């Protein structure tokens, strides 16, 4: 086991992986650098990361999780968090709870301040996950698989809309 301690100052923030980088018009609203912590500590059942969001941006679309819970601890900066139909101001020292559930638990952190907004995210890592995106009517099915023979993790990700669903027996 690696050392079970890491200092926030030692967490290297990186641009998002290409699969999660905002492109096109979305890049005008979304941007973040992230520093993954859990792999350095050897944990498997909880995810930990530091997210840094530039002024005026959001890290992720408004979404809810049906399986996993998240918690945000604001380290630096100010902003807002949308939860369901409400919006709350957030600042350094605030802890935000995002339980699993329906659209009423949908959440999104927005940097409304003048400096970078940094927060620690802690989440459960149950798989598969079903996420909904109420602003756009999308849903996502996300699964993480154990590392293969090459040691690289793999997974499954499908994002769509309910009206695009195929019939169970179609093509059988």
Helix content: under 10%
Low-confidence stretches: none
Rg computed from alpha carbons, rounded to a whole number of angstroms: 17 Å
- The number of E-state strands comes to 13
Structural class: mainly beta
Gist of the model:
The chain is mostly beta strands and 172 residues long.
List the helices and strands and how they pair.
Blueprint: E1 14-15, E2 33-36, H1 38-41, E3 46-53, E4 64-65, E5 70-76, E6 78-83, E7 86-91, E8 95-98, E9 107-110, E10 117-124, E11 129-133, E12 138-145, E13 154-160
Attribute tags:
Jelly Rolls; 172 residues; mainly beta; globular
Description:
This protein has 172 residues and is mainly beta. It contains one helix and 13 strands. It has one helix at 38-41; strands spanning 14-15, 33-36, 46-53, 64-65, 70-76, 78-83, 86-91, 95-98, 107-110, 117-124, 129-133, 138-145, 154-160. The protein has a six-stranded antiparallel sheet. Strands 4-11-12-13 form a four-stranded antiparallel sheet, with no helix packed on it. A three-stranded antiparallel sheet has the order 7-6-9, with no helix packed on it. Strand 12 and strand 13 (154-160) form a beta hairpin.
């Amino acid at each position: 086991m690696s050392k079970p301690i890491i200092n926030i100052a030692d967490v290297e923030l990186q641009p998002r992986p290409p699969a999660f980088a905002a492109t096109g018009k979305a890049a005008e609203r979304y941007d973040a650098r992230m520093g993954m912590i859990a792999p350095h500590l050897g944990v498997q059942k909880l995810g930990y990361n530091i997210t840094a969001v530039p002024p005026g941006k959001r890290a992720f679309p408004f979404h809810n999780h049906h399986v996993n819970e998240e918690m945000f601890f604001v380290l630096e900066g100010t902003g807002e968090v949308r939860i369901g139909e409400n919006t709350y101001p957030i600042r350094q020292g605030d802890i935000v709870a995002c339980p699993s559930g329906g659209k009423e638990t949908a959440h999104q952190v927005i940097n409304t301040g003048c400096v970078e907004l940094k927060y620690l995210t802690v989440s459960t890592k149950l798989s598969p996950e079903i996420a909904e995106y109420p602003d756009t009517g999308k849903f996502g099915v996300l699964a993480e698989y154990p590392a293969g023979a090459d040691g690289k993790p793999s997974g499954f990700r499908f994002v769509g809309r309910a009206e695009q669903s195929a019939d169970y027996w179609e093509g059988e």
